[in-house]
Amino acid sequence: MITAREIMTGGAHRIGAHETALAAARKLKDLQVGALPICGDDNRLIGVITDRDIVVKVLGTGLDPSEVEVGTLAQGEAVTIGADDDADEIFATLAEHKVRRLPVIDGTDLVGMVALADAARALKAPEAGRLIEALSTD
């Protein structure tokens, strides 16, 4: 069975919780990615910030992106997947939490990110279709 470690994008770039939404937007642009893991002062994962978060939670509410710390945008406990979890577990986690990207951890270390497209490529055609359908419904 294929594991998260095999399909993830390794060496996930991250952003510190005290960095600004503006810094996150620039990093997202420079890296050409849609999401960044947010790490606290202890370098532990506390959440994920997406380009949509910046638009909706910062710009859409009239906040100044150069003043908003990304750590304040993290909601609840971060949803993750273990590096050795298989494609079925990735599928279940993406569908259950209705997310399109998951940080991959090995113990407590962030080792990469796995995206919906990565999981879809790893699954058989019917499973990939069910995954996309599950993520597309409210």
Describe the protein in words.
- The chain has helices spanning 4-7, 21-31, 51-58, 87-97, 116-122, 125-136, and strands spanning 9-10, 15-16, 35-39, 45-50, 81-82, 101-106, 109-115.
- The chain is α/β, with parallel strands linked by helices.
- A 4-stranded mixed beta sheet has the order 1-7-6-5. A 3-stranded mixed beta sheet has the order 2-3-4.
- Helix 4 links the parallel strand 5 and strand 6.
- Helix 4 (87-97) crosses helix 5.
- The protein is globular.
Task: For the structure shown, list the relevant keywords.
single chain; 138 residues; alpha/beta; CBS-domain; 3-stranded mixed beta sheet; 6 helices; 22% strand
Quickly give the CATH architecture. Roll
Radius of gyration: 15 Å
Pairing-aware structural class of the strands and helices?
A: alpha/beta
Number of structurally distinct domains: 1
Helix content: 25-40%
Query: Which word captures the global form?
Result: globular
**Separation of termini?**
30 Å
